[in-house]
Amino acid sequence: MASLLRERIAPRIRVAPQQGYVGLDIGTRALKIALIERRGDGLSLASARAVSHDTPLAFDDPRRCVETIAQSLDRAWEPASRWLGEEAACVLPCSAMTILNLTAPEASPDELRAIIGGEFADETGIAAQRWSFTWWKDCQDAGHGEGTSLTAVGVPLDLSEQLLNVLLSRGLACRLMLSPPQVLARFTAPLPDAELNSNVAILDWGYESAVLTVARGGRPLFTRILRNCGLVRVIDAVADGLQINPADVPLLICSDDSVDAAASDFGRPRGPLDELIDGALSRLRDELMRTMNHLQRGAQAALPQQMLLCGGGATLRGISTRLSHWTRIPTSVWNGPCFGKGLGQLAPAPCLTASAAMLSAMRWNS
Q1: 214: helix, strand or coil
Q2: Selection from 115, 184, 188, 189 nearest residue 152 by Cα
Q3: Taking Cα atoms as reference points, which of 221, 104, 160 lies closest to residue 117?
Q4: Are strands 19-26 and 87-91 parallel, antiparallel or unpaired?
Q5: pLDDT tens for residues 257-286?
Q6: pLDDT tens digits, residue range 53-70?
Q7: Please, which residues have CB within 8 angstroms of residue 28's CB and are 6 or more apart in sequence?
Q8: Edge-to-edge strands of the sheet including 98-104?
Q9: What is the helix (H) or strand (E) element at residue 35, kind and residue range?
Q10: Do the beta carbons of residue 336 and residue 342 sit within 8 Å?
């Protein structure tokens, strides 16, 4: 996927070595954008913004979808005409991509590419040559010792080419276009040496769905999309239960502070609001437990020892405490420690722009 993008980028574009990519996390409901810079021996957040789309992205209409992304990007750059930086790295939501779990025979890279391209064509009806895709070996047992278990992620060229063009029209050359599992796996790359041999589950909990990736040392081991588990379920349940406007619910249940509720708070007396939230979280809880049971049975090498949360759902007050209690896996909200203090209170919650910041930092470690 990355090689295709590089072929389409003008080689004359230059970026100062102290500046990361402009990281673009393109979600179904919002665009998150971040810029990381080198400061001394470390990395620091120079700019960050989260902008809601005028309308949710519908990827069955690539042209309109890309137009909406462009409008959100223009608003993210206000009041200035644009941010400094000429190279970008972006990630599209899983709803824009097709993710396949395959068992493939032993084959050369070229043969494997042809096999996987055929699987994308069979799955979607779009010809293999109209896909840009990548794949990696995962830790699942293929069964009966036959073949290799792979995860393949692809995006239609119609969408990726239009997105590249609209970014170029705004002075951004997209050097990397990655899938959510690849970006989430990078969360484990900067961990302390003592934790590099530990499996970490990263849960990117968005508005409509969630993506769970288990990774170690920057490499994805297992990925699953948890559909119909998004934060919107909680928002709608609280709005219905309290008879309030859904737009007002985040002010009641979410926080921009990345410091989550203390573990001891989970045992306090439960009120009506807690009961509404717990009920709405039941599907997310069940899907997480089903996933952990699956790993226990067939892919123990990918069982996580800890879990990190990012995305809009990570701003829900007390979410890490709830998930730690339900899954028995130590869970915390990602707060971007490897990027220093950066903008402090001027930036969105670090968990919200985490993927965008990670993309920006890939300027130095991709």
Answers
A1: strand
A2: 115
A3: 104
A4: parallel
A5: 555 443 445 556 678 898 999 999 999 999
A6: 999 998 889 999 999 999
A7: 53, 56, 57, 93, 95, 206, 207, 208
A8: 98-104, 148-156, 131-137
A9: strand 30-39
A10: yes
